[in-house]
Design goal:
483 residues; two-stranded antiparallel sheet; globular; binds benzoyl coenzyme A; mainly alpha; 46% helix
Length: 483
């Protein structure tokens, strides 16, 4: 049965992929379900599994009105399998198969590559839930707590989306990979998550907002590239995931924006002239702007690593095979095969960082990373507008792409946020000015007191401009039951 715009709620697993007519996959998913619920209970949001949370659930894939808001206990959330509508006569839009009909089944020769892409994508989703599991306890408001849980249940749904593809299209090894997705654990010494940033801690709410701003935006870029895939079920899955991803980045951008707004307001009220007087600003019980900059430096650089190496034969193969495209592939005006094109790549040449023309096909990761950096910069400018409006003389900036990197061209280089290459000694001496130090972390942690009264917000963050689903300011987004 083709995907329809309405979701079938009669099966245990809501879906628009005709699961009730596909007993093999339905059974496999029903077998996987208890392990997922065990994972959610033991590694999902800690302490709030019996609370009623005002969540949106996808009930249709119609671009307008796909979401329904209601109180739900998280373990009862209807995690569904939803694909965006099929596009008539869709084609492979790039690579050596350009112009052929998009694949509805896995092309045998690309099976291993495709499985790898789906597994990597799937691995990040539960990882982020694990990273954020302790944050509910220190939520600065019921509004923020609800947003955290919304992000968490949707990451859970994104895991389901990838697990469906594994079960449906990859038989026995797909089922084994689906089990492994629940077995690996963020930060675990023996079985860590696959990509670096997903093994880092998310210790406080500023980290959470930075993560949803910077790392979820990597998610957006990667999903956009996979949405171009010639393997149509993957494309349609990612297209629908992107509609949910937008809210996650909204949570990040407005979360950081509201922290900045509150800090600026406190600085003004106290009559502090220099926003870099960290001790004076901290005494006001708000997070100083230089520390916000350090957190942005950290999360931006960790997220850059998620793009892989600038020059990558893996990426070239994904592209030539028609499995993973570029950001907005179909809007780019070129041959979509990249047989002769070149692309400028940042490289270290004689101790200096320079742009060097390289074959565009092997520079696919670099190009996607460039698109990502441009997208990140827009939100940073919106944060700067908040600072500007308050009349405070301070600007946030994205650090240079060579700063604090672990993967690719700059993985073994020490560089300042301005992009100057440094000796190890110079780096050690200055790194605490650029990345959050233990003392910065302790200070932020000292502010993380829960604020759960309806309509109230912790003193270090401003209230949002509007409520979720247009609810009034004192709406009870979470009915807390910690029993
Ligand atoms: N950490 O040719 P290379 C999201 C490995 S986020 C550890 O440089 P490639 C979300 C790489 O796997 C989006 N290992 O890179 C956000 C390879 O290993 P093998 C997730 C790394 O393959 C927030 C080797 O190094 N989706 O959705 O071109 C909340 C050489 O690789 C890392 C995707 O990433 C790293 N950072 O690109 C929730 C899309 N980087 O194969 C969710 C699918 C590289 O030699 N993934 N390596 O063993 C991909 O397209 C690619 O795998 C990557 C790497 C872009 C990740």
């Amino acid at each position: 049965m083709p995907a329809t715009s309405n979701v079938d709620y009669s099966t245990k697993i809501p879906n628009n992929v005709g699961l009730s007519d596909d007993q093999r996959v339905l059974k496999a998913l029903e077998l996987w379900h208890p392990g997922y619920i065990d994972w959610w209970m033991s590694r999902g949001p800690e302490g709030f599994q019996t609370s009623d949370v005002y969540l949106r659930t996808a009930v249709s894939i119609d671009p307008k009105g796909w979401a329904k808001f209601d109180y739900v206990r998280m373990p009862q959330y209807r995690w569904g399998i939803l694909l965006a509508p099929a596009q008539e006569d869709r084609r492979v839009n790039f690579g050596t198969h350009k112009g052929e009909k998009a694949w509805q089944e896995v092309p045998g020769e690309y099976r291993a590559m495709l499985r790898r892409l789906i597994v990597v994508q799937g691995d990040t989703e539960p990882a982020s839930v694990e990273q954020q599991r302790h944050l509910g306890k220190t939520a600065p408001s019921l509004y923020d707590m609800r947003n955290l849980f919304q992000v968490n249940v949707e990451e859970g749904r994104h895991l389901w989306a990838m697990v469906y593809l594994l079960h449906k299209y990859f038989g026995k090894d797909g089922r084994e990979e689906a089990e492994e997705l629940l077995a690996r654990q963020s930060g675990d010494a023996d079985k860590p998550r696959m990509l670096g940033a997903f093994n880092e801690a998310t210790p406080d709410w500023l980290s959470f907002f930075m993560f949803t701003y910077f790392t979820d935006r990597d998610g957006k870029m990667q999903l956009e590239s996979l949405a171009q895939s010639g393997f149509d079920p993957l494309s349609r899955t990612c297209r629908f995931m992107l509609t949910e991803e937008a809210h996650h980045m909204f949570v990040g951008e407005t979360g950081v924006g509201r922290i900045i707004e509150r800090t600026c307001e406190a600085i003004k009220q106290a009559g502090i002239d220099d926003p870099t007087e960290i001790a004076a600003v901290r005494k006001l019980g708000v997070i100083d702007l230089p520390t916000i900059q350090k957190k942005a430096n950290l999360h931006f650089s960790l997220s850059l690593d998620l793009f892989g190496s600038e020059m990558s034969t893996n990426a070239a193969n994904y592209y030539s095979s028609g499995l993973k495209g570029r950001f907005q592939e179909t809007r780019i005006e070129d041959d979509h095969q990249l047989t002769v094109a070149s692309y400028p790549v940042s490289k270290l040449v004689n101790g200096k960082i320079k742009l060097v023309d390289e074959p565009a096909l092997t520079a696919i990761n670099m190009r996607l990373r460039d698109d990502y950096v441009a997208d990140c910069a827009k939100g940073v400018e919106r944060w700067n507008k908040v600072i500007e409006k308050s009349g405070i003389n301070f600007r946030l900036k994205l650090p240079h792409v060579a700063f604090h990197r672990h993967i690719g061209e700059f993985g073994n280089v020490k560089a300042s946020p301005q992009g100057d290459v440094l000796s190890d000694v110079a780096w050690e001496k200055q790194k605490d000015q650029w990345l959050p130090s233990k003392a910065d972390g302790d200070f932020i942690e000292s502010l993380m007191e829960p604020c759960w009264e309806r309509g109230r917000f912790a003193p270090w963050i401003a209230a949002p401009k509007v409520g979720i689903d247009n609810k009034p300011g004192d709406f009870e987004y979470v009915k807390i039951n910690r029993a």
